[in-house]
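pasting for ref. prot 1 ->
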Amino acid sequence: MAPTSSRNATGVRYASIRKPFRTACEAAGLADVSPHVLRHHFASRLAMAGVDPRTIQELGGWRSLLMVQRYMRLSPAHKAAAVEHIASPEFHNAIPKVAAAHGVRRIVSGLQ
């Protein structure tokens, strides 16, 4: 995990990132942003980029995969794109091949 204390531009130690972070957000005109929100964003973007949860756990410093799951949020567009995979012709053309490879003789109508 990242260190919990650091120094500001004048070399003075500060124990929390919250105040300097808030000051930077105000200067940039950002509202409703916090380190907590950035952790959610970090985990979510990695997950939507296809990074496995164990790697996200290591990168974010979470102690358990359960916490990673709590922080990851998938966008509606990402979820819709995932569903579109099963609507693709490639998916439907692969069904009989996969079924045959697993010894399935009959495929429910409507899937072909």
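and prot 2 ->
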Amino acid sequence: MRYAAFILLVGMFVIAGCTATQKGATVGAAAGAGLGAIIGHQSGHGGQGALIGAGAGALGGALIADAVDKKNESVTKFCPQCGIRFDDPKMTYCPYDGGELKPVEDKASSVPSQQTTK
């Protein structure tokens, strides 16, 4: 039991410094290995099932996390009060007037183009 807790603690520290794609791959590999071991155990090949499941889970988890990362990076927002655009996905309020930022649906939208992003 102590060994499992130690492995879990070390794993948490290792994952803390990873990118979102790496975290997704790790979570996918762990879930895939668990499910693969359960399914493989039914046919007497738990180890092989765990390896196949870990590989498939890592690939799926990395692809999903990468897609989510790219979607979050490409969000352009604008302030409805002043019309200024912002490309920072973490920004939620306009630093100039405090208005809540709204996502731009289309890059060629009706938001005034003479006002640039900061």
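The longest strand covers residues 77-78.
Strands lie at 77-78, 85-86, 102-103.
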